[in-house]
Amino acid sequence: MNGFDALQGLPTWGLAVIGVLIVVQLVLDVIALLDLYKRPSEELTIANKWIWAVIILLVSMFGAILYLIIGRKPALVAEVAPSAPVASRAARAADSLYGAREDVEGR
Questions:
Q1: How far apart are CA 24 and CA 37, in angstroms?
Q2: What angle do CA 94, 97, 98 make, to 5 degrees?
Q3: Is 72 in a helix, a strand, or coil?
Q4: CA-closest candidate to residue 64, choices 18, 31, 23
Q5: At residue 30, what are phi and psi to the nearest 5 degrees?
Q6: Rounded CA gap, 3 and 67, in Å?
Q7: Number of other residues whose CB lies within 10 A of the CB of residue 47
Q8: Which residue of 29, 39, 63, 101 pairs with 59 in a disulfide if CB–CB is 3.0 to 4.6 A?
Q9: Domain locations in the chain as residue ranges
Q10: What is the pTM of this model?
């Protein structure tokens, strides 16, 4: 008896669930591996990319999830103090896009 004999006894919805799980695992693995490839080693919690690649590929679906949740260092958030009120910044942005507005109150 091989593995395919066991699959033949499953109902159609069972085969569909297995198919969806396989697709989800492949998509998660591809996303995690592409992110690992593009990300510099300094932005990883474990700086060795080979270790993460082995975890992603050999720990089934949970390896990719582990990498995506805890394998990457959080991005640094820069605090930016607003230099001007929002209305004046919006007005300057509109002026730079469409040209300076002419004062139409005198009409």
A1: 20
A2: 80
A3: strand
A4: 31
A5: -65, -45
A6: 30
A7: 11
A8: 63
A9: 3-75
A10: 0.61
